[in-house]
Amino acid sequence: MSEPESIPVESLTPRKAKLEHKALAAEIAAADRAYFQDDQPILDDASYDARRRRLVALEEAFPELKGAEALSDKVGAKPSSKFAKIRHRVPMLSLANAFSDEDVAEFVGRVHSFLGRKEVGGIAFTAEPKIDGLSLSLRYEKGALVHAATRGDGEEGEDVTLNARTISEIPHVLSGDDVPEVAEIRGEVYLGHADFAGINERQREKGLPEFANPRNAAAGSLRQLDVSITAARPLRFFAYAWGEMPVLPADTQFGVVEAFKHWGFRTNALMKRCESVEELLERYRLIEAQRATLGYDIDGVVYKVDDLALQTRLGFVARAPRWAIAHKFPAELATTVLEAIEIQVGRTGALSPVAKLRPVTVGGVVVSNATLHNEDYIRGFDSKGLPIRDGSDIRIGDTVTVKRAGDVIPRVQSVDLTKRPADSQAYAFPTLCPACGSHATREINPRTGKEDAVRRCTGGLICPAQAVERLKHFVSRDALDIDGLGDKQIEFFHADPDLPVKEPADIFTLAQRDAANFKKLKDKEGFGAQSVAKLFAAIDERRSPPLNRFIFGLGIRHIGETTARLLARHYGSFDALRSAGIAAADVSSHERQELDAIDGIGPTVVEALMEFFAEAHNQELLERLLAQVSPQPLEAVASVSPVAGKIVVFTGALEQMTRDEAKAMAERLGAKVAGSVSSKTDLLVAGPGAGSKLKDATKHGVQVIDEAGWFTLVGR
Ligand code: IVH
Predict the structure, then answer these.
(1) Backbone angles phi, psi at 112, to 5 degrees
(2) Active centre residues (catalytic)
């Protein structure tokens, strides 16, 4: 969509104003629906805001327009906030991706080596289509459907039980006499191509916006507070996985899914058991060849270890199982024109170039923005400084190929030099931050001595873009997850003179400050008494955030979700992390050694942590924030596991598990696994052939046990 009209509103005739108002209102309504209901934004934030500002300006100049649509008073409400939440007893995980045959071979190799197999072979896998819909978990007790939940953040989803009951392919009661007491069946809700086309046709007839693709249409149809809307949409369901199910009907993946069929579910007929990488790839090619004629969208093939005992041994890394992978279909390409390059400033000050494209459909989705990665990428070099695209740069006005792979952000892939306008010029990447005007520089990586690929604003706290992005991150779904406080609201409060939010602590004083203010939030555009009350309640609900989410929310560089979880587990409380972070500035301190020894925490993270705690303004910011919130320690693995918090070393030959497996098991139980024995080691697990580590253990008086002793200790 183009930028809104730039003729000053004062010079418009009432008729012109009315026409423009109507068009804008429709555009905004469509964007609201796409953003809030369909989870598929069709406008970027800046274009959306420009439209809202123009709408308000029109209504101010022509008050009669206000009654007509009264759209400027409305902020879309996320339907999700109105669904009750259901905590998944077994988390709903995602899958790691494979993009090539080599990736698949590596995955199969990893599975074998993790399980201690010297040679590849002998482990069977299933291969099945990866359905492009949304996952749903159905809980049956004594064979009756008791609730249905969406994936949500994997830990907690939305209660869509009433909606799920309207789907004919979801049985209300399971059939068969082998149905377990408790069975959580998981699978994918999706729409067939023909049904999708029908739904869009009806949307068109009613003058409503169409869905971009079947997946969005399925999501929008399931997450409806008005169940009759769901019932009118022919949603379908394939069962392919499970959550809590204490008694399983089989000991293989294939067998359990077979049982699902007998209980009344539809399962995918293309699922096959394969014995080798070659067989998996053969299945992949066959499914890919049938893709166009299946009648529903798939975006790859999922491989899973068939033997459930092996699945259990393999376990999980972060949010994905080690025993499964999604082999994605190749990305889709389209050609369009690069109209402009916009520089966005991120939370850490990174300047990211975004391609503004003439809208083009790539794989069923209209794309108008794509990433250009960084300055070097635009100039024609990869991260190692080697030429890409035969060294050609990317210029405004170029005809470019855009690549989109699944959920990945589309990117500008290549340039058609034969179509380059004669007067085009090389793009000059800004050296000043577009948000605050500070210098933007490329740091030298101390380890490699090379220039960082990313240019960063040096403005720090004075840069409004960074401040806003940090706040957005703090309240985002994987951090504090405050309902009703999304990107738009953060931008609003950051700029609001009456109720400014400049740092995280300010969020928690909103209600108190609003009460003291003369001008109330409920009277402001986009808010009402009810929505304000809800917002304040949602904020209050997050005054005791889980420690790992709190750490992640601080947005410390290099500390993602997994690292935040590790730190939360290790330190238990925020105070412990903070004092360690401060004391660790002294390289020879015991705190520094402890930090260095945490498995999974590398020097980059250690450095980033110390940098964060060394800044006086961060300390002050934390002081103010901690006066408002009390992070809750991670649900302690510690209290249940005898090795939680202990430093364990494995040495010698292990017989019942591989070294990787031992390490993963110890970590799951909250222990830290170290590579060498010191006075800080709590336990040495020594198998036959143990050498110097055993000696070190004796020297330091460390407890030594064998593999059997380990299993007795951890109760397996
Ligand atoms: S198995 C523990 N099988 O893909 C692994 N997932 O990227 C559970 N999906 O959230 C997932 N088809 O929504 C599995 N045949 C299939 C699938 C499938 C689609 C989706 C599912 C999941 C996502 C992970």
Answers:
(1) -65, -50
(2) 130
